[in-house]
Amino acid sequence: MTLVDEKKNKLEILVKSCRLIQRMNRARPDVMKSEVLYYQLLTNYFTNILNARNEGKPMALYTVFVPAEIFYAMDVVPMHAETTSWMIAAFAGDIGTLLSKAAELGLATEICSAHRGLAGAYALEVMPRPDAVVWSSLTCDNTAKSGELLIEMNHCKGFFIDHPFKETKEELDYLAGELKELVAFLEDLTGRKMDWDRLSQQVARTNRQIELYREIHNLRKAVPSPFPMHRFMEFIMSMYLMPGHPDALVYLETLRDELAVMVKEGKGAVSPERFRLMSLWVPPVFLMGMLGEVSKEFGVVSVVEPLFNLWRGGQLDPSKPLESLARKSFMFPELASYGPLDERILKRTGECARDYKVDGAIFYAHVGCRQGSALVKTYKDLLAEVDIPMLTVDFDLLDQTVTPPEQIRGKMRDFFELLEDR
Prior knowledge:
single chain; Rossmann fold; 8 strands; globular
């Protein structure tokens, strides 16, 4: 792999930024150990991608709902497409240049900026090129079409997973069959055979990850709630990037233990805790620092994110790894936003509002996400039935020129004043 200019490699900049944050966090006595581990997790993940070519390891670029456990079991270095764009915007800077290049390619602003940013990065040759792209019919039409574009741009092989929307035995069997074909594709690509024992170990650790998510969410029900508002994206990252990875388990176990101590001692993420929020969809990556400031200023904490971090019930069976990975995708919280929006999903959101003692909700409506934005009215009406006001924040996931941070902050301030008057 040859980059036009090594200094412009976005992942190198990302890794340097994460290492800098690690050093800064270690020097701060008030920083939780789990937060230090999180940035170590990011550093290791993207360093592995940077080193893949020199170490003779194949690298696969994959999208949401593609089970990375399969890559880890076959010693294929995984790179998650959407979240890599998020992390570049958050840590590597100059996302505008990537989006401008994507516009030159003909990608309209209505397309999700996470996909446009990645296309721009490859067009500018500032990203390691994959040996294969693996993508699926979920989460959205952006994802489905982006895979085809990335294969064309990188001149590599690709595999498309046809993911069903409904959870029936027939469709679970169909999806397991798709994953079996993915294994065969990777065996042909790498010349290696799947180590099924290793895959079973990956699935066992993923099952433990899910259990830890559930334990952490039970701790977040406490009043005051112990988990800082600006950190909930860490949950998404740890499963998207490192499902079934030992480093992810260490991070989650450390976080669980820290939160358990805080709950036992009656300590919250903010003091005093004034407003408990339900967060719907994903906030813009450029807002994370501001969310921490807003949380402290107004005594606000996000206690639950039912569309992204609250896993459905069920267990994975390591003795049936492909079937379990198929089932896992239907346990994944985000799947609630795709396919049939049935009463089971809506009822669960209402139960969250009650169980987590929610005062209000914020729906982060990414303008490039037709699936997410289509849910706004449904959730607003649903929460109104249980007397929970909801603020809708329109923005672009990566491009802060669409809705500047201070404008979002002003909307939040007005919303918190409304909650105060109730």
